[in-house]
Amino acid sequence: MASPIVLRWQSPGERLLINFLISRKQVKEFQARVGNEQMDAVDKQWDMNVDVLVIGAGGCGLAAAIAAHDEGAQVAIVEKRDKPGGNTALSTGSIPGAGSRFQKAANIIDSPEIMIADLERIAGQHELSQVSDYLSRISAELCEWLVDSVPARMSLITDYCHVGHSVPRLHAPASRRGQDLMDDLLAGVAKRDIALAVGNPVQSLLTSSDGDVIGALIAGKGVESSRIKASKVILACNGFAANRDLVKEFCPEIAGAEYFGALGSQGEAVQWGRALGAGLANMAAYQGYAAVAYPHGSLLSWTTLEKGGVLVNSQGERFGNEDIGYSGYARLVLEQQTEVFAIFDDRIKTIADKEDEFRDLVELGGIKAAASTAELAALFNLPVDKLANTLASYNQAADGKAADRFGRNKFGLAPLQTKYWICRVTPGLFHTQGGLKIDTTGHVLRRDGSRIPNLFAGGGAAGGISGRAGAAGYASGNGLLTAIGLGYVSGRTAVQELGLNLAQ
């Protein structure tokens, strides 16, 4: 096999990132087409040697690479899919930050202690409570780092509190699109000239005779497997929600839901970790979504429910307390085994219209309007009498004239009024919240609690902070907090352990 090398070049107005696991013959062919390139030699024992190898090019992996690079490390990222993104690109790009300067500018009183209490209230004590507390304590620093250092175009969402949070603390792109956050992270990687190779799945982790992780075996495009030596390895390769067998094993209550997350979430980190004797944490927890627009496949903004909308089944009846949030409510929607519909009014639509994805769904015809309850029922052949009774009962509770039969007490600003809007929805599984057991620095732990040397994990590869089981413990932003947060922490920690901190 010809020795692979690193290849990079800069074209006018655009930095192109190509597969760095290519043969020397291929390099010559590229040279003939594009001119001079910078090439890094590798030694004879390994095909490549780096300080930090990041496996996965979602939000966690890119954050880890940027953090490690800025601490002075030589970093490479490998991604098995042909495009970076993962679940970060499919999210709203929202990250909680308690006590950030953006909150202070908006006169919002918050602190890590308040956030810790919020997360514990919804998720309870779990196997990674210490990690949850630590991420809460650095959450403001994390959001400010994203804006100041990456840099990412994010701002504080002040319109309302999100699921699980007692004050507005989510920071997100103005569009509420995770792809915008990904674009900024990718620009940060490109600006730093960090090597990124897509279409390069990791076949296995490589270990020393002592069990220390020392690199990875990579299957490059059109070439034999290549061995990358790395002083530190960070697993940022997402969870196992796309692996039906693992979902049935660990999250059976949602196994029947359609998967709407990133296609690469096959659970490699869990499988590699098991082989190395790693512990697992919070494996029965997951993030669901109760209102995926059907058949469009895009998310119906939960703003429509948070601000006072309701979900009804094909009989026109509510079936639970919508206040438990989009993740916890997904199981209840699945249990209906019938079509389900989100209903809200024009006041709520005006709020949701601030979100790009919601406006796109309106333009696609995924949300339909009705001037009366009879028109609303006729749109999807719902029983008009039952639907009218449902809305009347709900409005009485929302107006404070009666108790809600399901115990709901956060109704937005007013009872529902015409003009009504309705969207047919289906439940979805978005990502798992369990994974490798880690400590507060992102180190992967064995079952006995000791560290597996040189191995870190974040995002879906690591255990999450949404409780031990189910989806009710998921607070908005938990997924990206563990992804971006643990990427940031593990990248910095890995370099500090190597004594390579060159940043001044």
Class computed from helices, strands and strand pairing = alpha/beta
Number of helices: 17
Terminal Cα span? 41 Å
Radius of gyration: 24 Å
Strand content: 15-25%
Helix content: 25-40%
Q: Quick one: overall form? A: elongated
Description:
This protein is elongated. By secondary structure, the protein is of the alpha/beta class. A hairpin with a 7-residue loop joins β11 and β12. It is 33% helix and 22% strand.
How would you briefly describe this protein structure?
Helix 5 crosses helix 6.
Secondary-structure blueprint of this entry?
Blueprint: E1 6-11, E2 14-16, H1 24-34, E3 38-40, E4 48-55, H2 59-70, E5 75-78, H3 86-90, E6 95-96, H4 101-105, H5 112-123, H6 129-148, E7 155-156, E8 170-172, H7 178-191, E9 195-197, E10 202-207, E11 213-218, E12 226-235, H8 244-250, E13 258-259, H9 268-276, E14 280-281, E15 284-293, H10 303-306, E16 310-313, H11 325-328, H12 330-336, E17 340-345, H13 346-352, H14 356-363, E18 368-370, H15 373-379, H16 384-398, E19 420-432, E20 435-436, E21 443-445, E22 451-457, E23 469-470, H17 478-498
Structural features:
eight-stranded mixed sheet; 22% strand; disordered N terminus; 23 strands; alpha/beta; 17 helices; 504 residues
